[in-house]
Amino acid sequence: MDKVKVEQLKIQMQQWLNEAEEFINDIPPVQLYTAVGVVLSTLILLLIIRLFKRTTSNTIVLTGLSGSGKTYLFYQLRDGSAHQGTVTSMEPNEGSFILHSEEDKKGKLKPVHVVDVPGHSRLRPKLDEFLPQAAGVVFVVDSVEFLPNCRPASEYLYEILTKASVVKKKVPVLLLCNKVDKVTAHTAEFIRKQLEKEIDKLRTSRTAVSDADISNEYTLGVPGEPFAFSQCHNRVIVAEASGLTGEISQLEKFIRENVKP
């Protein structure tokens, strides 16, 4: 009985195939090719959209020297408070969340994955784990203690701006001058100019040994001209913030410009 059913099914399928072949043969070639082209174009478009969605990042990396106030900023973004910001961690502090200022829009916005990378020099290699996925980098500078830290901050920033993972993808960088609520804080304009001068010195000395320098694949600036952030391969923006008081509107704006809802 089973063999009979199988045989009947084979006959039925053969009839369907014959009917399908006759139907296709009756279609004018132009219409057939057009239909096939439409199907293929649709499949390719869907594939491109899917790949684009996969590569769209929602990761924002907070980095900078130790003591610049990165962790204060992390908790202000997440909780609207700096209550846990005094803890210095030796491991990256990260989380995915809706920005505290946007909690009334929860469910309508895309969560942001924020990574607070420790600023200690021995832990900076951890930065390389997150940069390839970064939608934006926030380099935090202590506006109060800027002058004694200008050289090490410039060296660290130089490393970031010349990394292949940043240059190739043109990852935007926000140079965030923190602690501006303090009376002794330097202005963002002053900090920008001093960093540009220091990086100009760095690129001159490093260009001289570029053949031996395997850590950086790209150089900064325009040969023969003083360095300026506007010459970078990627966009570099200068802004101000206060992690202690919660004045982080410019930081939030940068995040939402690069992590779309």
UniProtKB/TrEMBL annotation:
<keyword id="KW-0256">Endoplasmic reticulum</keyword>
<dbReference type="GO" id="GO:0005785">
    <property type="term" value="C:signal recognition particle receptor complex"/>
</dbReference>
<dbReference type="GO" id="GO:0005525">
    <property type="term" value="F:GTP binding"/>
</dbReference>
<feature type="transmembrane region" description="Helical">
    <location>
        <begin position="32"/>
        <end position="52"/>
    </location>
</feature>
<keyword id="KW-0812">Transmembrane</keyword>
<keyword id="KW-1133">Transmembrane helix</keyword>
<dbReference type="GO" id="GO:0045047">
    <property type="term" value="P:protein targeting to ER"/>
</dbReference>
<comment type="similarity">
    <text>Belongs to the SRP receptor beta subunit family.</text>
</comment>
<keyword id="KW-0472">Membrane</keyword>
<dbReference type="InterPro" id="IPR019009">
    <property type="entry name" value="SRP_receptor_beta_su"/>
</dbReference>
<keyword id="KW-0342">GTP-binding</keyword>
<protein>
    <recommendedName>
        <fullName>Signal recognition particle receptor subunit beta</fullName>
    </recommendedName>
</protein>
<keyword id="KW-0675">Receptor</keyword>
<dbReference type="InterPro" id="IPR027417">
    <property type="entry name" value="P-loop_NTPase"/>
</dbReference>
<dbReference type="Pfam" id="PF09439">
    <property type="entry name" value="SRPRB"/>
</dbReference>
<dbReference type="InterPro" id="IPR005225">
    <property type="entry name" value="Small_GTP-bd"/>
</dbReference>
<keyword id="KW-0547">Nucleotide-binding</keyword>
